[in-house]
Structures are given as C-alpha cells and as structure tokens.
Amino acid sequence: MNSLNKAEIIGNITRDPELKTTGSNQSVTTIGVATNRNWTDSNGQKHEEAEFHNVVCWGKLAEIVCQYLNKGAKVYFSGRLRTRNWEDTSGVKHYRTEIVAQDMIMLSPRGGGGGGSGDESGQSYDDNAPEPDNGPDEEISAEDLPF
Prior knowledge:
Blueprint: E1 7-13, E2 20-21, E3 27-40, E4 46-58, H1 59-68, E5 74-87, E6 93-106, E7 124-126
Parallel strand pairs: 4-6
Antiparallel strand pairs: 1-3, 1-5, 2-3, 3-4, 5-6, 6-7
C-alpha cells in the first residue's frame, strides 16, 4: 500500500515573498500563509481561529511567487508536508513543518486586494520539476539554507 502526503490551503500571504538562491544556484522562497476557520458553538457564539503555515517554493515557482504575489494576496497552494530539524549554536534542536509547494493559483483580483501585479485572477502554475535532491548521503548544512 502506498502513502499519501498532500496538503492544500487557500489563504492570505502574511509577508512579501523574498527570492533567495541556494549554494547550488536553486531559486527558493519561503512565505507565510494564514488560513481562517469560523464556527458557531452550541450557545450560538461565533468564533474565528487563524492558522499560520510556512510554504516553500522552489525553482520557477519561487520566481513566479516573488514576481506576482505580495502581502495580503489570496492564494491556493498544493504540495506536500515536510518537517525539517536543525540544531542552533546553543545546541537546541528546532523543528519546522512546511508545505513544499508544487501547484499555485493566484486568487486575488488583478491589481487589487493585495494581489499580484500582472496576471488575471485564477492564474495557476504547476511546478512539476522536482525539488533539488540532496540524496540520502548528502547533508544540507546551515550555510546552504537561504532562510
């Protein structure tokens, strides 16, 4: 039996994307996306809850995200979940779960609502190019990470 690792979110970008390049000359950007959940409890009181997601885009998708999206834009991302871990200089281990994006659809209207500057609403991009494979034997050092 195969496994499934798939994440899909629709939300608003929480900060302007910034394009970076790895030591192996790969384009990458990490952005935040906020999603909201609204519900009414059994007493009729309305509630709202925000969840914040880290999204990583590689290659051409990273370049497109940086070119057309900015803070506040509504966007759809589809990809897979990945949890990274690293140890800081004090020896404390950190964990970060992120969505490695493969598909993106811009949902903000053209030129408005914090949306990008260029394509029409609903513009999509499918990044079928695989994320750089560092292989099981090649470790990524902290210097290789652009963020």
